[in-house]
Design brief:
Layout lengths: L1 H10 L6 H23 L3 H12 L3 E2 H8 L3 H13 L3 E5 L7 E5 L1 H10 L2 H9 L3 H22 L1
Antiparallel strand pairs: 1-3, 2-3
Length: about 150
């Protein structure tokens, strides 16, 4: 009986929680990103939007939301701020005005060159080889997929 109680107690220790390890790592990551992104004039969610647009410009708001797992209530104000900063333009679809395309402005495209240093800064701070980072990223993607499937 004591073994079961000890096991149950250990399973409830904060440091034994995968969710806390992921949460605290995420906090550390965004804290490290902050000064790098401040130099670019971006918040972390704005950074994610810009990454997606640098990958493929002209996406619809719904595509961005799907790719970033953000709803339109979160994404729309974020896009408005990026537009006010002159980095993106919101363009209504001529065939269906409910659809809005997000396109990079010249300033938004120009920012990509400045942003190119950020991933290397992260890699250096993590003190991981490229192989280790690729493996970790793959493991996290796999974990996310399994958890999403279990929740569905």
């Amino acid at each position: 009986m004591p073994t079961n109680k000890a096991t149950a107690d250990a399973s409830l220790l904060l440091d034994n929680q995968l969710c806390f390890a992921l949460y605290s790592a995420s906090l550390a990551m965004t804290k490290f990103y902050k000064p790098l992104l401040d130099e670019l004039g971006l918040t972390y969610p704005q950074w994610l939007v810009m990454l997606v647009l640098w990958e493929q410009d002209g996406q619809m708001v719904s595509q961005l939301g799907e790719r970033l797992s953000l709803d339109s209530g979160t994404l729309t104000p974020l896009l408005k701020r990026l537009e006010a900063a002159g980095l993106v333009a919101r363009v209504r679809d001529v065939q269906d005005e409910r659809r809005v395309h997000i396109t990079l402005t010249a300033e938004g495209r120009k920012l990509k060159a400045k942003a190119a240093k950020v991933p290397n800064c992260i890699r250096e701070a993590a003190e991981c080889s490229m192989t280790e980072l690729v493996q970790l990223k793959r493991q996290l993607h796999d974990l996310r997929g399994r958890l999403a499937a279990a929740a569905a």
